[in-house]
Design goal:
The structure holds two protein chains of two kinds. Chain A is an all-beta fold. Helices cover 0% and strands 48% of the residues of chain A. Chain A is globular, with a radius of gyration of 13 Å. The chains are: A mainly beta, B mainly beta.
């Protein structure tokens, strides 16, 4: 089966600019997660969707970050405006209702804010 | 709140040496436990998981982990490492029976020398 697809793989932007990341989960996976992985740290959840509804966005900096999953499949994560501390790898993951808790990860998008 | 501690940040071993990476978690309920591996330039992949039953779980590539409930630990082991095991290893936990977020440790970078 095809894995979780993310694009772009790399992005370099200046601070105060905006950026968007795209994720296509594994077919049939109702749960979609966005994680942020800062260098030297483990991934940290930003937002979790169940179909097109938000389950957990408690760690999402809502003044600058937004995410949507309008049709319950693809998702986009946006940062506007970006700060230097947003430099990280943004990981998308999905999980199946048949195997609760096990997440499959995409390659990630490495964002550098200069 | 959940938390995961990985004691070793960077481990260097010679090929054929034995490996044990420590992982302790903090959570007030029943958990699922995971080890993920990230090879250089690749995405996070599941190495092994514990949901219930036999506390000794075997994963891919000869890895195993033992869940010791009384110690809140889930240490990863391999009797004889190979150069190809060079990667970053992450321990993670989430609430059992749910699709809730994974809480990750900070990771252990394993370097295997020839």
């Amino acid at each position: 089966e095809a894995g979780v697809a993310q694009s772009p793989r790399y992005k370099i932007i200046e601070k105060r600019q905006s950026v968007a990341f795209w994720c296509n989960p594994i077919s049939g996976h109702a749960t979609l997660y966005w994680y942020q992985q800062i260098l030297g740290q483990g991934p940290k959840l930003l937002i979790q969707f169940q179909n097109n509804g938000v389950v957990d966005d408690s760690q999402l900096p809502k003044d600058r970050f937004s995410a949507e999953r309008l049709k319950g499949v693809d998702s986009t994560l946006k940062i506007q405006p970006a700060k230097l501390e947003d430099s990280a790898v943004y990981l998308c993951a999905s999980s199946s209702p048949r195997v609760l808790g096990e997440a499959f990860f995409g390659q990630g998008t490495r964002l550098t804010v200069v | 709140a959940q938390s995961v501690s990985q004691h070793n940040h960077h481990v260097i071993l010679s090929e054929a040496a034995s490996l044990e990476l420590g992982c302790n978690y903090s959570y007030g309920g029943t958990v699922n436990l995971f080890w993920y591996v990230q090879y250089p330039g690749q995405h996070l992949q599941l190495l092994l998981k514990y949901f219930s039953g036999d506390p000794l779980v075997k994963g891919i590539k000869g890895f195993e982990a033992e869940f010791i409930k009384s110690k809140f630990s889930f240490n990863l082991r391999k009797p004889s490492v190979q150069w190809s095991d060079t990667a970053e290893y992450f321990c993670a936990v989430n609430a059992a029976g749910t699709a809730s977020k994974l809480t990750f440790g900070t990771g252990t970078r394993l370097q295997v020398t020839l």
